[in-house]
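Postdoc handover notes: sequence design on the structure in folder B. Input tokens:
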């Protein structure tokens, strides 16, 4: 692959900037109605599912339906609503209930922690080894840039466990990076809060989430507490599996690139756009599929324009692909099955030592 020169990339950036400006000029009432209706639908799904779950003793099929409805409500809250609102995609509405700075989502991970390490760190340093902690989440070796260790041999099992418990991984991600509980304490921290505050926020959010799903709702439905507890647990696992699968398909397929910190020094806008595209993958699908992924099926567009309302990615994608083709820049997209197979293949490949792997440091 021929790397475009700086001048060509600046021209590339101007075309992408123009596309963003053109798209944002269209943003308005239609987008506001969409997110408000979706939030309303999500609330209705959650309330209905909890009522049906209580009535599940009438029929096992009714209970299964309730679990699937609750899982769907949790997926919508996590992906199309929470993730996108917290990226500031709807700040222009000036609605305090749809404000990215104070929105809290229905998972174990604290929203403020997510905003710090995901919105800033991951989206600034996408796939930069040593800077982007989302590349492998500190658990998986997914590139030759990372030294092989014996624990990587069974990382496919680690991946499956991470997927099932993904909300807890999100909760622990920043805490793990600060080594609050395990490992040698870091001497310096760039946290805007104290480590004590981070620890308090961590335990507070997982406590509230655990109490709501596994104590409060089962207790208020005491005669059927076990079926409610079980239903909540399964709905959370289904949401975790779906969320992690979509995220991995957007970041860890064949063809994605990694970067070293010295490569991004003095990075121009065009070079940053170029890096976002090389580090992202899209998933093809229909409208409902895109909604259920939070439009992270358009990961390329999301990495380029994280603050543009996500439903707009569908109309932006063909133009982004055209611009990439014009400049000879690869645009990674494929059907869900193909992209997920690539993810599993990548995890398996880097489970074993490779000749060009980085060496472990003491």
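Designed sequence:
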């Amino acid at each position: 692959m021929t790397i475009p020169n700086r001048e060509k990339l600046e021209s590339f950036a101007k075309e992408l900037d123009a596309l963003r400006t053109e798209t944002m000029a269209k943003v308005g009432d239609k987008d506001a109605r969409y997110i408000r209706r979706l939030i309303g639908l999500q609330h209705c799904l959650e309330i209905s599912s909890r009522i049906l779950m209580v009535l599940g003793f009438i029929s096992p099929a009714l209970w299964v339906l309730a679990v699937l409805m609750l899982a769907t409500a949790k997926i919508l809250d996590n992906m199309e609503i929470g993730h996108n609102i917290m990226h500031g995609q709807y700040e222009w509405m000036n609605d305090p209930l749809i404000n990215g700075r104070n929105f809290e989502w229905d998972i174990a991970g604290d929203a403020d922690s997510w905003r710090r390490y995901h919105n800033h760190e991951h989206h600034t340093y996408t796939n930069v080894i040593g800077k982007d902690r989302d590349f492998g989440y500190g658990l998986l070796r997914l590139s030759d840039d990372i030294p092989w260790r014996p624990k990587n041999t069974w990382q496919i099992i680690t991946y499956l466990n991470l997927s099932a418990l993904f909300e807890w991984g999100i909760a622990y991600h920043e805490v793990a990076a600060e080594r609050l509980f395990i490992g040698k304490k870091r001497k310096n921290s760039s946290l805007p809060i104290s480590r004590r505050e981070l620890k308090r926020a961590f335990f507070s959010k997982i406590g509230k989430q655990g109490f709501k799903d596994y104590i409060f709702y089962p207790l208020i439905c005491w005669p059927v507490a076990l079926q409610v507890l079980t239903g909540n647990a399964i709905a959370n696992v289904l949401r975790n599996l779906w969320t992690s699968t979509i995220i991995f398909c957007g970041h860890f397929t064949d063809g994605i690139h990694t970067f070293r910190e010295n490569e991004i020094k003095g990075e121009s806008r065009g070079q940053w756009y170029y890096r976002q595209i090389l580090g992202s993958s899209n998933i093809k699908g229909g409208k409902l599929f895109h909604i259920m992924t939070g439009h992270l099926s358009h990961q390329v567009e999301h990495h380029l324009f994280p603050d543009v309302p996500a439903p707009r990615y569908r109309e932006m994608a063909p133009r982004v692909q055209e611009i990439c083709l014009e400049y000879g820049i690869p645009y990674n997209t494929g059907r869900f099955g193909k992209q997920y197979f690539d993810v599993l293949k990548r995890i398996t490949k880097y489970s074993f030592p490779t000749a060009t792997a980085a060496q472990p440091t003491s």
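Context for whoever picks this up: Residues 49 and 69 are 6 Å apart (CA to CA). Don't rerun without checking with the PI first.
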